[in-house]
Amino acid sequence: MPAPVGLDEATVEAFRRGDEAAVRAVFGQYSGLVMAVAMRVLGDRSGAEEAVQQTFLQAWRNAGSFESGRELAPWLATVARRAAIDIQRREGRRDTSPLDDADPTDAALIVMPPSEERAWEAGQVRLAIDSLAADEREIVRLQHLHGFTQQQIADHLSIAVGTVKSRSFRAHKALAAALAHLREVPS
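RE: above sequence
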């Protein structure tokens, strides 16, 4: 997997200020790296996907403390490694037993549905993704559900990396616009 090329200084500075487009650019550029770090620590795709989410959430929250002039890749890799280790420790503390031994009437197996608000938000995300053009929807699916890098997507779809980047940019721009109402804080 080729190392990601750094983003320009203006994008990094915009990221530090919390600019949405810059945050998306950082995610698009470094999500493959973060996934690779998480997979190396956890060896489990599901856990690694959670670590990727945690990493970018922490990066977004702490973007203002990122030092100007530093490279994002090592910083994000460190955040990803720590997030993955936290997940590994949390999962390691859970007692497990074979599923066949579980009593199907055990209350611990009954899962309450998500809150109405969370279910609505998830539905909004699904609708926004479904509204994308098929080629853009496929890029988003491969990036976010399968953790593919842009190069892996290009290889998988037999298209140029530049095409992956432009489709990804358009898709994320459309998603940001369609989902902007989810980021609004009620007054």
